[in-house]
Design brief:
flagellum; alpha+beta; membrane; chemotaxis; two-stranded antiparallel ribbon; FliL; cell projection
Length: 78
């Protein structure tokens, strides 16, 4: 099946903990799907997908986002 990328309409904006000062992070994400049916399902369920991803991103710490390994781990969890 062909690969398609589904843009999530809004960037994720959240506070990050783990440092002495407040930090605000913005992440723009795309979903990679295979096949037209999955592309349509991803678009239909995008509110639920966005909510789940925001919960995952919001649990990140400054240390995770600073290290390449931490960013890969966060991406894999999302």
């Amino acid at each position: 099946a062909p690969i398609a990328y589904v843009n999530l309409p809004q960037a994720f904006v959240f506070n990050v903990t783990g440092d002495s000062r407040d930090r605000l992070v913005q992440i723009k994400a795309q979903l990679m799907v295979r096949g037209a049916e999955n592309e349509e399902l991803a678009r239909y369920h995008s509110p639920l997908i966005e909510s789940s991803m925001l919960s995952t991103f919001a649990s990140a710490t400054v240390d995770q986002l600073r290290s390449p390994t931490g960013r890969v781990e966060l991406r894999d969890r999302a």
